[in-house]
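call fold(seq) -> tokens
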Amino acid sequence: MNPPSKSTIESSIFFNQPEINNVTKLRTQPHSFIAALLTVFITMPVFAAETQPDPTGKPADMSKPVQVYILLGQSNMLGFGKVGAADKPGTLLHAVKQKDLYPYLVDESGEWTERKDVRNVRVMGSGTGGMRGFNNEWMTIKGGNVGPEIGIGHQVGNVTDAPVLILKSCIGNRSLGWDLLPPGSDQFEEDGMIYAGYKESPDKWKKGETPKPIGWYAGMQYDGDIARAKQVLDELDKYYPDAKEYEIAGFFWWQGDKDRYNAGHAGRYEKNLVHLIKQLRKDFDAPNAKFVCATLGQTEKGATGNEGMILEAQLAVDGKTGKYPEFKGNVATVYSHPLSKGGASNGHYGGNAETYMNVGEGMGQAMAELLKSK
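ret:
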């Protein structure tokens, strides 16, 4: 198998961002060996890649509505797992050819498989700017990088007897507490600062002062990402040939890196995430759509500081916790630390393709479980 040509488009993910926070390495509180070991066994999803059926190559039943799954977040949802070369550990080719992982990705001749029942679409833009298209093909390995969409697409495709559209609309370096703040979010006060509510600007200002707007507002990226996803759906047959109708089946969310550099945003993350889930369902008129969130791969249970607050917020919305009864059976969180092969979110996990595949499979499996509760 010859490695596909390397994609060059990812360099655009940080453009036109009005505010870049200083990046500092965050530390988490270490666990004892026993606690860490128990955490792995208790929370590790059961991956059975060798039992995943190989794609048949057959088209879906087009008499049924396309089942749409919308992927949102920031740069790690975009995907930085390197396809690379078979002799380089950490690449997808190495995982497939040297470690015999993800066998459903290759056929008997060693070429990448292609699903004719799952469509892979990715669009992107900064704020409310124009839309650029990067993927519009049947689910396969294409380009130099992969993201969680591959594992997600295969997992949901295997449990769905209708056409599936994986629709990714996101860009890098965006926070839930500012760029992706959903409509209806109120401003709040903390430590003498007023943090912007939806459509307010700038992101924060001193209490008692008059805010001076900048060329960006709270929720500007949310508005753009949602508008671009809707634009794809308005032209459905352009992205899923011969499709006539669709249903929003679910949302996938992998985000949190930028919020960990802002204590105000980290402390507000749970409230914002709960509102995000509800607002997405409202904006897409999909009250029964499922929602799956993945945590940051480097953050262990028991972590403190901003990372710990974000992890606890993401775990709290899982319907199994009971904290939000309305989320029972329709919201799930994947604890991704045991699935990560090292590195951290701000370094895109070292480009290790296994991390992106594992997290994608985990999110897809979580969605498959939620779908059983229809």
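The chain has a mean pLDDT of 88.
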